[in-house]
Write a structure and sequence with these properties.
heterodimer, A: alpha/beta, Gyrase A, domain 2, Rossmann fold, 7-stranded mixed β-sheet, 13 strands, 47% helix, extended, B: alpha+beta, FAD/NAD(P)-binding domain, Elongation Factor Tu (Ef-tu), domain 3, Arc Repressor Mutant, subunit A, 36% helix, globular
Chain lengths: 449, 620
């Protein structure tokens, strides 16, 4: 009767492949539901299968699925491992789909706990397992709290308060049927309140998703006057020829995006069109786009040419961006210095050569430092707990939608699902149930003979 | 003098405990301060209510007496929440409180093996942590194998009204001065609780044209599943409703310093669900009126209980307050309201059987365990009586689970969570309330009562007949086709349902929310009794919810199967939170399930506990 649990078992971000582990008696059935390929319910133990993870009709990722049937598995339960193509968003998406299809997010250390309780690792000292779980629980707790932004957690708290007062009101109607001062909760009233909550839940879900810096990645725009080597810098970063690079001024017209993973976080690079005074309409559009990109980015790399003197154009661009988070890139550092840097004393300066690749690594390190990506492990956890929270939010949304569908039933029966909804949302905040309810009942209503 | 069991106290817990022990063949002595006060209702003259009414049905199904006596002596019946779902419906009656007490006394007097005596108890006779009997305040030793304490609010109680405070029990009875001190010396943790009661007034002095009449239901319905007495629904006595007003509130606020509650003389913790009128006015200042229920207390004297008006104001202010209310302008107070403070035992001192963890053979039940309410008391009395008797036969105790009975919820809450105020059952305390229904109390518990030995052949026959009828009806609807005929479809349309496309079984048809089984049976011209129709219909219509609840039950029971060895040392469990360690050491739960419900214990603590058990007790 144990639940089936799932978790990402690799450090997300760095590796090309990620593994999601599922354990429990329904693990094969659940993975089979979201897998397009061979029917996994009939395959032999310890076999690997190629296919796709599906979200409804949408292909999410090309994967290899390994099936391990009880008892010869890590936890002694049925275990499925999904090898997917890395990338935080994809890996988390797959986890989310698993959770929506009946898996529960594994508690910290739960796989090893199961392995131990099921007698799999009988040589491991119990204390060691216990210490490990204890440590992981503490880390996860600290990070779990951090994972939820203040705004979302307040919204969820408010929702729970609304639910609690609805539940308390229903309970008062039941336990004190003759009490006149409480509103009699009707199906219609429930319908109205739950509809309002559904709207808010959707809003929180989209906000939480938006707020995930890591999911969105860090947007870095590269600006500078034409032909200072912006596109070349981008390409060195990306290690591939994506932008069109020529020596003719104004050839980069469109914003080219490419991204790399730095310490598990996606860095989105945006190459802007060279900014200069122009009457050319096409080029003008490009310039406008550039400024928009700069506005939307988390970091601006301002590229200067070491071999040329500081021009009016350079100064004008600089005036437009100097209030943003800016790194000064002095490119063509391998050429003879003509550039006067005295104007940029207060700014971080990095010398690069896109011809020799000099300075690219120091630039990467600088970004890691600026966004505190060094604490990779923390950031990973933060994201994971967010993904867990978002999937709980989505489950909650499902429950709320079901309540609306069921509104033909008696109020006290609808309340069963309202309570489940309230508890579900509590899981996100780690809050408990019953005492709150009695407090609410007796503080809001003047009851008793 | 030697007895098998001595029951100390003749309230609702004591009555059930003594009756159960004696009926199960044990030589039983019930000791009380005043035999005429046995089965008294010192507060409201009413039995049942939300959740509590279901408890009375459960007591009855197990072979207790409260339901039977309540049925014989009620003067009004109301079936609460009858329009809500089946999980929250409950019966409540107004009792002729004098007749209730007399009927109970007669029942106990006619119970074989049971002796009633008037004494106050001074102390327990204990040897090697085992109870051997009691010592009376007259220094007489009476010996027994088991002692059940059901002392209610009588332990070292103080009566408080205005600024006066004196030792005494409810209604001028003597308090038990020494017993709680003795219990403390024996190492039991004693807590101080408080409750209160409103004034009573002379019904002949009420202006009934100014108050609102509240009539009973017109439907015959009883607490007892057996020996169903019939009564004339037209002969019911009404209750009445009036309200406090601005004037009442002003007088209370002006005189707060004069009442016991707000003058700082009360240390005990009172129940939130039973606030005094002073509390209501102070804590809910925005309310411009409160409901006051006028309930007939004693038919013979026409005394009226002023429900909702519990107070500790001095007499003259109580007079003034009562006269501010509509219809009570000239009402005469016959008894003044008061607060009572009393000693109780911290219920975490008990095992799930209600036997003391420290002193073997000692059981406690009712208000002494920190509960409030006649029904809660009676339920514990019955369980303590049953378990003392089972223990005499060296049998395992009866422990009802949370999915089996409200009584199970009550005792599980008390023992695992402890209390911070007098405990009252509420439907919200039962997580599986859809299973713990009024209508199926007998189905849930009669077999258990039979096995214990409290359900005699006559009752058991009645139960079995009902079961047979239910099975017959279930078989009938599962086997009978409802054909897709013109006539049948007309019947469906008439009942606001939709036409059939194909013939279906009646059992399928009943799943439609708008289709009523009774009507279908009438239409099909077959007869079954009301009870079986109700049972079958609930089980079919609410199957989805019932199945869902059963799944949750299964999860709970799974944890309940994992036993914790009684010799476990929680100090040795690594990585468990200090609070959890303390609470677990105190409560000493028997199973992982019980451990998970102990307040202050987190899921992570349970994980640590499981790992520890696996290592230290690999074979269990």
């Amino acid at each position: 009767m144990e639940d089936t649990i799932a978790a990402i078992s690799t450090i997300v971000g760095e590796s090309a492949l990620n593994v999601i582990k599922v354990s429990g008696k329904d693990s094969i059935e659940i993975v089979n539901k979201i897998f397009s390929g061979k029917d996994l319910s009939n395959v032999k133990s310890h076999t690997i299968h190629y296919g796709f993870i599906m979200d409804g009709n949408e292909k999410i990722d090309e994967v290899l699925v390994s099936i391990f049937k009880t008892p010869k598995t890590y936890t002694r339960e049925d275990v499925v491992e999904i090898n997917c193509h890395g990338g935080i968003s994809i890996t988390n998406k797959i986890l989310e789909i698993l959770l929506l299809n009946g898996c529960r997010m594994a508690e910290p250390g739960e796989f090893i706990k199961r392995a131990y309780l099921n007698g799999r690792i009988n040589l491991v000292e119990a204390e060691a397992v216990s210490d490990l779980i204890s440590a992981k629980t503490e880390t996860a707790r600290r990070i779990g709290i951090k994972g939820l932004t203040g705004e979302s957690s307040k919204l969820i708290k408010d929702l729970r308060e609304d639910l609690l007062s609805l539940i308390a009101n229903i309970e008062v109607n039941i336990d004190y049927p003759e009490y006149e001062d409480a509103v009699v909760v009707t199906k219609d009233l429930i319908k109205e309140k739950i509809s309002g909550m559904i709207y808010k839940l959707k809003e929180i879900i989209s906000k939480s998703e938006n707020q995930l810096l890591i999911k969105n990645g860090i947007k870095v725009s590269i600006v500078g006057k034409p032909n200072v080597g912006k596109s070349s810098l981008l390409n060195k970063f990306l290690n591939e020829e994506k932008a069109i690079v020529t020596d003719i001024e104004g050839t980069t017209r469109d914003i080219v995006e490419g991204s790399i993973i730095l310490n598990g976080v996606e860095i989105k690079l945006i190459d802007t069109a060279g900014i200069r005074e122009t009457d050319n309409i096409v080029e003008k559009i490009g310039v406008e786009k550039s400024y928009k990109a700069i506005d939307e980015s988390d970091l601006t790399l301002f590229v200067l040419d070491n071999s040329r003197k500081l021009s009016k154009e350079d100064e004008e661009i600089f005036n437009n961006i100097k209030n943003k988070k800016v790194l000064i890139i002095v490119n063509k550092s391998d050429e003879k210095q003509e550039l006067d840097l005295s104007k940029f004393k207060k700014f971080e300066i990095i010398n690069t050569s896109t011809k020799t690749k000099d300075g690219i690594d120091s630039l990467k390190n600088k970004i890691i430092e600026m966004f505190n990506l060094g604490n990779l492990e923390l950031n990973d956890y933060t994201y994971l707990s967010n993904s867990r929270q978002i999937s709980i939010l989505k489950e909650s949304l499902n429950i709320a939608n079901n309540i609306l569908k069921k509104s033909e039933e008696e109020v006290d029966l609808l309340e069963i699902d309202i309570k489940i909804l309230w508890e579900k949302l509590g899981e996100i905040l780690g809050e408990t149930y019953k005492d709150d309810l009695l407090d609410e009942i007796f503080s809001k209503f003047c009851l008793g003979k | 003098m030697n007895y098998d069991v001595i029951v100390v106290g003749g309230g609702h817990a004591g009555c059930e405990a003594a009756h159960a022990c004696a009926t199960l063949g044990n030589k039983t002595l019930l000791i009380t301060g005043n035999i005429n006060n046995i089965g008294d209702m010192p507060c409201n003259p009413s039995i049942g209510g939300s959740a509590k009414g279901i408890v009375v049905r459960e007591i009855d199904a197990l072979g207790g007496v409260m339901g039977e006596v309540a049925d014989k002596t009620h003067i009004q019946i109301k079936f609460l929440n009858s329009k809500k779902g089946p999980g929250v419906r409950s019966l409540r009656c107004q009792s002729n409180k004098k007749l209730y007490s007399e009927t109970m006394i007669n029942l106990l007097k006619s119970t074989k093996n049971l002796t009633l005596k008037e004494f106050l108890v001074k102390s327990l006779i204990i040897e090697d942590n085992k109870v051997l009997g009691i010592v009376t305040e007259d220094n007489e030793n009476i010996y027994s194998k088991k002692v059940i304490l059901t002392t209610g609010t009588y332990l070292n109680s103080d009566i408080m009204r205005g600024h006066s405070k004196y030792k005494g029990g409810p209604h001028g009875e003597k308090t038990s001065l020494y017993l709680s001190k003795n219990l403390k010396e024996l190492g039991l943790k004693i807590i101080r609780l408080k409750t209160g009661t409103p004034p009573r007034i002379d019904g002949n002095t009420i202006n009934y044209s100014l108050v609102k009449e509240e009539k009973g239901d017109n439907k015959l319905i009883t607490f007892s599943n057996f020996n169903k007495p019939s009564y004339k629904v037209k002969n019911q006595i009404s209750c009445y409703l009036t309200y406090t007003n601005e004037n009442t509130h002003k007088i209370i606020l002006d005189n707060l310093d004069k009442c016991a509650l707000y003058s700082g003389m009360i240390e005990g913790i009172g129940p939130r669900y039973c606030p005094s009128i002073e509390d209501k006015i102070v804590k809910f200042r925005d309310k411009d009126r409160h409901q006051i229920f006028l309930e007939p207390n004693e038919l013979e004297t026409n005394e009226i209980y002023v429900g909702g008006f519990s107070t500790t104001m001095p007499d003259e202010i109580q007079e003034e307050l009562i006269h501010t209310m509509k219809g009570l302008e000239n009402a005469k107070i016959t008894k003044y309201g008061y607060a009572i403070e009393y000693d109780a035992i911290d219920p975490t001192e008990l095992n799930m059987s209600l036997e003391s963890k420290k002193i073997s053979g000692l059981y406690t039940a009712g208000q002494i365990n920190g509960t409030s309410g006649y029904e809660e008391a009676a339920a514990q009395g019955l369980i303590a009586g049953i378990n003392a008797s089972l223990s005499l036969k060296e049998k395992k105790p009866l422990i009802l689970k949370r999915n089996e009975a409200y009584i199970g919820v009550l005792i599980d809450d008390l023992i695992n969570k402890g209390i911070t105020e007098p405990y009252r059952l509420l439907t919200s305390r039962a997580e599986f309330r859809l299973l713990l229904r009024h209508d199926n109390a007998d189905i849930r518990l009669t077999e258990i009562g039979r096995k214990v030995g409290l359900i005699d052949n006559k009752k058991y026959d009645i139960f079995n007949k009902k079961q047979e009828e239910i099975n017959k009806l279930m078989k009938f609807i599962k086997e009978t086709n409802f054909k897709c005929s013109k006539e049948n479809n007309e019947f469906l349309l008439k009942n606001k349902s939709v036409k059939l496309e194909n013939s279906i079984k009646v059992s399928e048809l009943i799943k439609r929310p708008e289709i009523n089984l009774n009507r279908v049976l009438k239409y099909l011209n077959v007869k079954f009794n009301k009870e079986s129709i109700e049972q079958v219909e609930i089980n079919i219509k609410y199957k989805g919810y019932i199945d869902k609840t059963n799944k949750e039950v299964e999860k709970m029971l799974n944890l309940e199967d994992k036993k914790i060895p009684s010799d476990i040392d929680y100090e040795k469990v690594r990585n468990i939170a200090t609070e959890a360690k303390q609470k677990l050491s105190l409560v000493r739960p028997l199973t992982i399930g019980q451990a998970s419900r102990v307040s202050g214990v987190n899921p992570a603590d349970i994980s640590m506990l499981l790992i520890y058990l696996k290592k230290e007790y690999p074979n269990e």
